[in-house]
Design goal:
The chain is mainly α. The protein is built from 12 helices and no strands.
Length: 244
């Protein structure tokens, strides 16, 4: 695990070095000073990367903090980077996604983080391959209901919010959540995902259904007070996910 963290932090610090090197040449400053900055950078990142034990056992709020680091790594490690970097990140993601608190904590950051001028990994055309690979090992009974909620709830909040900025942020979150749900349906071909999406669509369109999943989502809709307008938008999101 220590070697894994060293590899990841070395990559991040090398990227920082590539930015500082031209600056040093332009300003004529001493590169030795910049090198010491990179060494301090590596030490700082190393201490920030959570351990597998922390990712597997820490509380929900601690998982949210850990997720900020992992989402940062998803943004930093590119598809063309060395495979060992991605394998190490996949192992970290698998550890966090191995339990409910970790799944919820990870997606709190992944779906809602605003990166300024930088493109969030959640906004790329496809879900990052490291995250796709990590989700293959996650218990679908844990992951799928939460992934569905990550579409249903922000979709409903688009029209429930009275503040335009909050509504716009819910739209972004819903689109990111939908991309993850589509990945679960297509790349991972999860029957559990499809049955949950179909049950949500049945509830949102007021179709009859006696399946336990339909009852589960009926209770969920009633709990949060979704009305016809929210149900209309949720139904459309499920149709998009199911490609109907």
């Amino acid at each position: 695990m220590m070697f894994c963290r060293f590899l990841i932090t070395t990559l991040l610090c090398e990227r920082a070095a590539s930015l500082l090197s031209p600056l040093a040449r332009r300003t004529g400053s001493n590169w030795g000073a910049h090198s010491s900055v990179i060494r301090r950078c590596r030490t700082s990142f190393l201490s920030a990367v959570p351990t597998l034990d922390q990712l597997e056992n820490d509380s929900f709020m601690q998982q949210v903090t850990h997720s900020e680091t992992l989402v940062g790594l998803l943004a930093a490690i590119k598809e063309e980077d060395d495979d060992s970097q991605k394998v190490n990140l996949i192992n970290l993601l698998k550890a966090q996604l191995s339990h409910s608190d970790g799944i919820r904590g990870f997606f709190v950051t992944y779906l809602t983080a605003i990166g300024g001028n930088e493109v969030s990994p959640a906004d790329t055309e496809t879900v990052p391959s490291a995250l796709v690979e990590a989700m293959r090992d996650v218990d679908p009974q844990e992951l799928v209901p939460l992934a569905c909620m990550n579409v249903v709830m922000p979709t409903a909040m688009i029209t429930m919010h009275k503040d335009a900025d909050l509504s716009a942020q819910s739209q972004i979150t819903a689109e990111r959540g939908l991309r993850v749900l589509q990945c679960l349906l297509s790349d991972l071909d999860s029957d559990v995902t499809r049955r949950n999406c179909q049950a949500i669509l049945s509830v949102a369109t007021k179709e009859e259904g006696g399946e336990d999943l339909v009852s589960y989502w009926q209770d969920f809709f009633e709990k949060w007070g979704y009305q016809d307008l929210q149900k209309r938008d949720i139904a459309q999101a499920m149709r998009v996910a199911l490609r109907e």
